Amino acid sequence: MACTAQQARPSEADPASELFEVCDDSGNVLGTELRSIVHKTGLLHKAVYCFVFDTRGRLLIQRRSSKKSIGPNQWDLSVAEHLSPGEGFREAAARGLQEELGITGVLLPQQPLGPMHRRSLLVPGKYVDNELVESYELRGFQGEVSFNPAEVSEVKYIELPDLVTQMAAEPQNFTEWFRDELTLLCFFGCKPVDGSGISQQQQRAGCPNLN
């Protein structure tokens, strides 16, 4: 697999002037607001995750750029994208694949991995990030990845058992939402390599395949 930086993309990682739709707990749109204000005040908005797997079942993960305002230099899931005004979750996932990883011409499933759910991230003095999220997966990908250096510094494929073990050993190296979402998805039914390292949080999530 070729993993090269794509230069013909916007150079700003988190533009403060970007508009987000503000919504209620049911996802109904109430209006729009600037990214900077949304993340400062904790207004509820929408985001989408996409997990990309290759033909060997390995998960594509990305290391976030040092320029990112949240989670710089941490490993993250394949794509995490805010929705643009008027955009649906699935449409935003496809856009994120193109903008962050240069992946185009793929067909995402019609249905998400689970129901829309709420995620919150508090960075004291900096951010109050409240999102409604849907997750999608792309299986059997075998194309090239050309990542956007403004947002991504590195990409790699990883076996799920290795990922589980690494997350348990060094959770600080991974974004909080990546860890939480994998827990919610029961790590796609995967156990760690050595059969250990499952946190109490994962056990409480009710994932029988992790026991």
TrEMBL record:
It comes from the Eukaryota. It holds the Pfam family NUDIX. CDD domains: NUDIX_Hydrolase. Residues 43-180 form the Nudix hydrolase domain. This is Nudix hydrolase domain-containing protein.
